[in-house]
Design a protein that fits this description.
Elements lengths: L27 H8 L7 E5 L5 E3 L1 H6 L3 E8 L5 E10 H8 L7 E6 L5 E5 H4 L5 E6 L2 E2 L9 E3 L12 E7 L25
Parallel strand pairs: 1-10
Antiparallel strand pairs: 1-2, 3-4, 4-7, 5-6, 5-10, 7-8, 7-9
The structure holds the ligand Nc1nc2c(c(=O)[nH]1)N[C@H]1C(S)=C(S)[C@@H](COP(=O)(O)O)O[C@H]1N2 and molybdenum atom.
The site of ligand MTE has 18 residues, from loops.
Length: about 190
Amino acid sequence: MSYHSMAREFDRSQISKPRVNGDPPKNETFERLLAVRFVVWRLTLDGLVARPSSFSLADLKRYPSSTQITHLACEEGWSYIAEWTGVPLAYVLNLAGVLPQAKYVVYFSLDRGWWDSLDIAEALHPQTLLAYGMNDQELPKGHGAPVRIRVPRQLGYKNVKHLSRITVTDNLKNFGKGLGSTAPEFGYSWYAWI
Ligand SMILES: Nc1nc2c(c(=O)[nH]1)N[C@H]1C(S)=C(S)[C@@H](COP(=O)(O)O)O[C@H]1N2
Ligand SMILES: [Mo]
């Protein structure tokens, strides 16, 4: 359970049948983005950073990529192993320059209802990815196109799909009910380490 421990990584032969939990966003913004294969999609990065930024999918794909074969475990009791490709969140945070007073990274979906947060240590962990690929393909619509966060040390719900914005903050009080995520509003824990 140390901050530096790594989630287990698997062999290609262990990749299993994926399962989708949650429908893609049902709004015009998402439909429009999908229709143009996300070329106008941007990921906003703001808050306690030296250089607030916005990234296209092409920008993210230009950065150093990382691939992992890891286990996604839903709190409801099912799981699967898949290969995920993306840019480490740490890389993108370092481009923007996280300010010293930062404590959490909060991230939001194009699906308005879904958002969650990580502490800075988890956000900078080498296995925490902004994933745009899954099992050697573009990230499918059901699994979070164009980009989702992949945090393999944490339960499924922390792995928010269809990202739209990331903000860096020193406290979680001003987001939603102040619990750091939608999940705790329904009785799940914010701290969802496996
Ligand atoms: N935007 C969004 N992100 C989401 C969800 C969702 O419904 N919408 N479901 C969460 C839950 S509960 C789980 S278990 C995982 C499932 O990811 P998968 O559908 O790619 O298997 O995504 C998480 N991220
Ligand atoms: Mo889940």
